[in-house]
Amino acid sequence: MSKLHDVAAQPSSAKTLALVAVSGLCMAFGVAAFFIGTFPLFLRPVSQELGWGAATFPQALVVCGLSGALAGPAIGALIDKVGVRTVLVWGMACWGAALFSMSFLTHSIVQLYLISMVLGVASSACGPVALTKLVSEHVQRARGVALGFVMSIGPAIGTAAAVTAAHWLLGVMEWRKAYGVLGGTIVLLVAPLAVSLAVLLPGRSKAAGAATAALGPSVEGGYTSGQALRSREFWIVVGFAVLVCGAINSFVGHFVAWCAERGLGEGVATMALSAFSLAGATGPLLAGALADRVADPRLLSVFLLLPVAGFCLALFGPPDMIIPALVLLGVGFSAITGLTPFLTTRYFGLGHSGQIFGLILGLCTLAMGLGPVVLGVARDAFGSYRPALPSLVVATAAAVLIGLALPRYRFAQSARPDALRPRPTPAGNAHK
């Protein structure tokens, strides 16, 4: 509780806590929960009705990831320039409308691609890029826990609720109406939620701007996206995050079909997916609390071991270990996604963190989209999931080794709760 007390102890604590809480609610009704989270349940009925193979409908995840990857840096730069308010509200509106339009899918692949493109752009405008920027600007002390709350509690509870709701909806109506209900819920509930968040914002984040301005231009600006791309830290973070996100999402995306192949019922699969989501609520909170306390970021690699253990249990363990395996995968997945924005601000500063995190998130989203398609292609080629799944263990094990290469932070937390101080950098090596 001390870390939550640290958040409350900052200036304008009630407003800060409200921003963190509402940001978490926005994430609960976001793309990760209502589209990606429910995707495994829609995969079979959509593919069967439209006559698609196992690799066709998952292409929506690829296009969504690709458009998010391309739009993420631009959305992040726009947020860095004009603030979160306008971008967030419009992003929420587009996201809800795009999900609703999934109910009008036909056999046209072009239509699927167009809808998925809008989903990808909207995911950048109203998702982690916007909300983690907002939290990072207003929370310095206990930033890891605050980001963990936004990146874990909201998406985890939202995904569990969305999966349960989608399972029920698909049991009482056909998939088109189910998508319509989910999309309509976003339009009706999330848009007012985003407006409430916008009301809390003091114009273009004046408080955060004043805090960073007091530190001097080098700290306020931090790394530009070009400088980040040329840094070793950027590619280390991208390396382990992409491997973990791609491997786990490919497995989760085909989990229901894989369970059916193993003779496990859809009820067990749904329960395991809910456990994956609910367990994920703890990952970023635990990782954030550890990140706030330790100076050596390599210690955070302990969370990279969880997906390795989860895959080993799921693939090589008995059927009754499926739910524990999904719990480990959920904690590991959410811990890594929750640490990514924290590491972005600690390695590259706040000034361009929206654009830099947009780059990282876009690449992770792209990996999350490509993973299910690659696994689907392998399933169609081999006639079974079994031959390809051990590669997921290899990928997550490689992520552990990459995480152990994390260097010390460049921007460390100051003794002041509202400031960051840059680590001293040897002359000639700044922003390398």
From TrEMBL:
SUPFAM superfamilies, A to Z: MFS general substrate transporter
Transcription listed as a keyword: no
Alphabetical UniProt keywords: Membrane, Transmembrane, Transmembrane helix
Entry annotated with the keyword Secreted: no
Regions that span the bilayer: 16-37, 57-79, 86-106, 112-132, 144-169, 181-201, 234-256, 268-287, 299-316, 322-344, 356-375, 387-406
MF annotations from Gene Ontology: transmembrane transporter activity
Source domain of life: Bacteria
Residue ranges of domain Major facilitator superfamily (MFS) profile in the record: 16-410
Alphabetized InterPro entries for the sequence: MFS (IPR011701), MFS_dom (IPR020846), MFS_trans_sf (IPR036259), Proton-linked_MCT (IPR050327)
Protein name per Swiss-Prot or TrEMBL: MFS transporter
Organism listed in the record: Phenylobacterium montanum
